[in-house]
Amino acid sequence: MNATAITVTEHRIEWDRPDRGRVGMFSLIGAESAIFTIFVVAYLFYIGKSLTGPTPKDVLSVPVFYTICLLSSSLTIHLAAKSLRRGSVGTFGAWWFATIALGATFLYGTATEWHRLIYQEGLTISTNLFGTTYYSLVGLHGFHVIVGLLALSIVMTFFLMGKVKSEHAERVDVLSLYWHFVDAVWVVVFTVVYVLGR
Amino acid sequence: MSTDAIALPGTGLASRPIVVRLHEWVTTVDHKRLGILYIIYALVFLLIAGIEAIVIRIQLIRPHNDFVSPQVFNRMFTMHGTTMIFFVVMPVLFGFANYLLPLMIGARDMAFPRLNAFSFWMTAFGGLLLYFSLVGANGLYGAGNAPDVGWFAYAPLTSQTFSLGHSTDFWILGILVSGFGSIGVAINIVSTVICMRCPGMTLAKMPLFAWLNFVMAGLVILAVSPLTAAQIMLLVDRYLGGHFFDTQAGGSAVMWMHFFWIFGHPEVYVLVLPAFAFVSEIVPVFSRKPIFGYSVMVGATVAIGFISMSVWAHHMFTVGMGANANTFFVLSTMAIAVPTGIKIFNWLATMWGGKIDFKTPMLFCIAFLFQFLVAGLTGVMLGTAPFNWHLGNSYFVVAHFHYVIVGGILFALFGAFYYWFPKMSGKMYNETLGKLHFWLFFIGFHLTFDFMHIPGLLGMPRRIYTYEPGRGWDTWNLIVTIGVFFQAAGILVFLGNFIWSYFRGESVGSDPWDAWTLEWSTNSPPPVYNFATIPEVKSRRPLWDLKHPDDPD
Amino acid sequence: MGSEILRPPGHDRSPSTIELPAPTAWPIVSAFGLTLVFAGLVTSASVSILGAILAIAGCVGWFREVLPHEKHESVQVEERVPVVATSRPEVTQVRWMTEELHRARLPLEIYPISAGIKGGLAGSVAMAVLAVMYGIISGHGVWYPINLLSAGFFPARTTVEQIAAFHWDALIIATIIHLLCSVLVGLLYGVALPMFPRHPVLLGGAIAPVLWSGLLHSILDAINPVLNQRIDWLWFVLSQIGFGVVAGIVVSRQTRVHTWQSLPLGVRAGIEVSGRVHQDNEDGH
After folding, report:
1. Same structural domain for residues C43 and C131?
2. A150 in B contact zone (CB under 8 Å)
3. Is residue C278 part of a domain?
4. Which B positions 224-263 lie with beta carbon below 8 A of chain A?
């Protein structure tokens, strides 16, 4: 009955389990979604409850161009991961760089919008309830974009050092999941802030 | 290295210098060492929070007592609740999950060993940050040190106006930091259960322990994150002048309640599901029968996980949410009693007709069954909105949730300590001292928490500093406080037993209980790699199959 | 079949060394750094800056541990591998429903559902007889206890004369309440009686009715206040015991049936298959 004294039989159990990086990333996305849900619920609940101005209608303008930038970066990162899986590392680098550029453009858009709101419209996080919820929700999303860009840049650095190979496709895939999530959250934030909230 | 001179002579274990061993523990990524770190860390905080409980009870032992000042009393109950939930029960459960999960599913480590270490240290530093408030929070305001806003910290008490100084900030930050650790460990548990099972162990063949901890980790991911979000909002309010919970600017104090209890109620199930997991492993082994209704147990667990996300506002019946919301939360609260009841019946059916061996772990599990039943029944009472309007925020509520956490979770936890101590240490505990611990704690528990219901029914509100004589509360409070000292004595016996047994106890083999799950097939304590060869399993009880080759499951 | 349960996955015996993740200090450094970043909010900005530096250093160090390849250390495998054995090799075996011996899984036998229904109905007759006897002996007549049982539905009838008179609607409702409760309690008896190890008649006939009466005593005011005002508790307990004894006797005289849940699917489906005992592992419990 000794575990190791048993003779090995011919057939082995077929055993296939999901990749742990992917499962871990999905769990992280679950946790992040819960955090965003609370902020979105707070935003929706507090729409129109500010006692003083400015109101969203007065100051918010819809950032169509920057939204297109961010959403199309989902496409470019998908193409990047796909070309890495196929083994064309050069194409991967090009698409990857495009993703970072699009993400950075989006961040620039948020920065200019905030600059305008603070210095021209006089809306800060403590001005009224709208300011509190707006800056926290958009800021939380912006923070995730920054984290995503940092991670993307690290991969870019490795690419420039020539260390990214097609065997890293799985890891790159997992990272791209995070970026897709950041983009998907923006769809929700955009809807809540710029469509429902105005 | 010249650290050899620091080696402790004569302990028998100090074959290597203590600095080297300490360094090994600090830099470890081994799930077993991290599990033990979690457990020891939690036991230290158990002593601290237990002392806080004793201070609270001494203050309430008789009317017009002034053992501590009202300010200190507020800090005591805040720190007691916060510490017990976030820095005792959660870490100790994470510790057991960490230690046992890979062993039970036949893996060599968790899915993310470094994240595991990171999560532990976040939890640990979070607790230290909270307790640093005792020396660090006085500030210029002279506004007191430790947090005193209660463990659920309702707005607007937490606003800058009412909570001067940094004590509330310490509360927020301590929990925020440890919350990141909790989410990290939960992600790890989910990934481990899904991706690290040994060949042949399909989801339907996992030990129930793995299933329950899997659902628990899912709940942590979905429930602790909202708390993190709410804490961030509170920080925005306090540091950046935000208005989330500022009613003067249109904000809502009730939103904080919702956000807190969206975390707070699933949290109860985060704590109790691992307790169920212990009982589901211990009861079959000491009844010599397989668990009754495995698939129903799994289904009930998943059902509890889902329903627990929709019951939070039964903590808020007295707020005035309106008839529709009240009705919904009454019904969902009643609904969650059903899968919980199914579990109790399944454990009873597992014991029924079995050859029950009344060792200490089993004693604790049997007590758990009946005490958790009572706790569930008072829970159904409190889940009824009209009843809740009478007894909300009374000592009846305090008695109810202590019945859940002490009578349910802590008893199951003690059972787990006795059951797995031989595996973790390689030594057998002292059975007589174990039984002494059980009876001391059992008597103390019932003295304290049975009789605590009565002053609650007689109208004694929770969190009061002292009370007038002649309201019929005096004798009950005296009995309640007396019970605390029995419990304290029980805890000391428990700690003494384990410390003594660790150094002087009898060595045990790999499988002292004649059990059926994989952790008992490796050495006690297990080698760092757990299994020399990764096992392959064919049933839910791989060791049964090995022990009864002609009659496998 | 059992001998291949736990076996090495590879072709050769256990390896002499095993690769495990190498210990690293970077997680604790980054955790400490991150905590200090937050601690800076309650102390001073310099603490946050120090924390940020530590956290970044920790992250960089951590990345260097896992990128491009995870660092491992080799651990020597001990020769000593424990023997898996049991002190209880004996397993109780039974032989029914199948040709071969197989493990006995409790419970072996239970009462069928019909036993509970029969017991409940028999008990309901006994209880009704006792209740009507009470009506006659107390001098209010046979309709008095029946009206009392349904009194919760007719709050307008409050005087003794009204309650003692015949009402067909009260009779229907009382009959429904009586039969429903009796059948439900009978079913409970059918489930519970085999589980009582000793004295099923004492437990089912006396103790359970008394407990049940005690429960009703505490809540009757809420569910049927008229009955609560006029109830004669001695007679009430007596009729409950009458129900318990009769239902218990009837239930326990029924034939028990074998439980099937541990049997192989082939047997349960009634298919003639040889050598089928150990095929169905999934349904073992």
Report:
1. no
2. no
3. no
4. 224-226, 228-230, 232-233, 236-237, 240-244, 249-252, 255, 259, 262
Which own/partner pairs from A159-168 qualify as long-range (CB within 8 Å, at least 24 positions apart)?
A159/A89, A159/A92, A159/A93, A159/A96, A160/A93, A163/C68, A164/A84, A164/A89, A164/A92, A164/A93, A165/A89, A166/A84, A166/A85, A166/A86, A166/A87, A166/A89, A168/A84, A168/C68
Put simply, whether the predicted model's pTM sits higher than 0.95 gets the answer no
Q: Which tokens hold the place of B4?
A: 């050899």
- Predicted ipTM of the assembly: 0.92
Give, for C257, the enclosing helix (H) or strand (E): strand C257-258
Question: Is C9 close to B136, i.e. CB distance below 8 A?
Answer: no
Right CATH for A3-196 from 2.170.130.20, 2.40.50.140, 1.20.120.80, 1.20.1280.170: 1.20.120.80
CB B182 within 8 A of CB B227: no
**CATH code of the domain covering residue B474:** 1.20.210.10
> pLDDT confidence of C151, banded at 50, 70, 90?
confident
The answer to whether C281 contacts B26, with C-beta atoms less than 8 Å apart, is: no
Shared domain check, C211 and C117: yes
Q: How far apart are CA B76 and CA B370, in angstroms?
A: 30
Cβ–Cβ under 8 Å, residues A139 and A186: no
What's the rounded Cα separation, in Å, for the pair C284 and C145? 51
> In angstroms, rounded to a whole number, what is the distance separating the alpha carbons of residues C43 and B133?
10
Across the strands, what pairs with C72? Answer: C21
* Residue B359 falls inside a structural domain: yes
Contact present, B266 and B219 (Cβ < 8 Å):
yes
User: Could you tell me which residues come within 8 angstroms of residue B475 by beta carbon, excluding any fewer than 6 positions away?
Assistant: none
CB contact under 8 A, C78 and B523: yes
Please tell me what DSSP assigns to residue A97: H
Domain limits at C145? 110-258
Cross-chain Cβ contact B352/C284 below 8 Å:
no
**Chain C residues lying within 8 Å of B108, measured CB to CB:** 18, 20
DSSP states of B13-65 as a string?
STTS-HHHHHHHHHT---HHHHHHHHHHHHHHHHHHHHHHHHHHHHHTSSTT-
User: How high is the mean pLDDT in each 10-residue block of chain B (553 residues)?
Assistant: 39 69 93 96 96 96 93 93 96 96 94 95 95 74 74 91 87 96 96 94 94 96 96 95 92 94 95 97 94 93 94 92 92 93 93 91 96 94 92 94 96 97 95 96 96 94 93 94 96 96 92 93 92 90 88 78
Is the dihedral angle over the CA atoms B195, B198, B200, B205 positive or is it negative? negative
Inter-residue contact A168 to A16 (CB < 8 Å): no
Distance CA B193, CA C46 (A): 41
Torsion angles phi and psi, residue B51, rounded to 5:
-65, -40
Cβ of residue A38 closer than 8 Å to a chain B Cβ: yes
Q: Does A140 touch chain B (CB under 8 A)?
A: yes
Assigned domain for C285 exists:
no
How many Å apart are CA A45 and CA B254, to the nearest integer?
11
Q: Which residues pair with C76 in a beta bridge?
A: C17
Cβ(B137)–Cβ(B170) under 8 Å? Answer: yes
In degrees, rounded to 5, the angle at the alpha carbon of residue B292 between the alpha carbons of residues B290 and B293 is 125
Number of domains into which chain B is organized: 1
B299 contacts chain C (CB < 8 A): no
In single-letter form, the type of residue at position B493 comes to: V
Report chain C residues whose CB lies below 8 A from the CB of A11. Answer: none
Query: Cβ atoms within 10 A of the Cβ of B121, count?
Result: 24
How far is it, in rounded angstroms, from Cα B349 to Cα A17?
Answer: 34
Q: Does A136 touch chain B (CB under 8 A)?
A: yes
Instruction: Parse chain A into domains and list their residue ranges.
Output: 3-196
DSSP string, B310-375: G-GGGG-GGG---HHHHHHHHHHHHHHHHHHHHHHHHHHHHHTTS-----HHHHHHHHHHHHHHHH
Contact yes or no for B32/B525 (Cβ under 8 A): yes
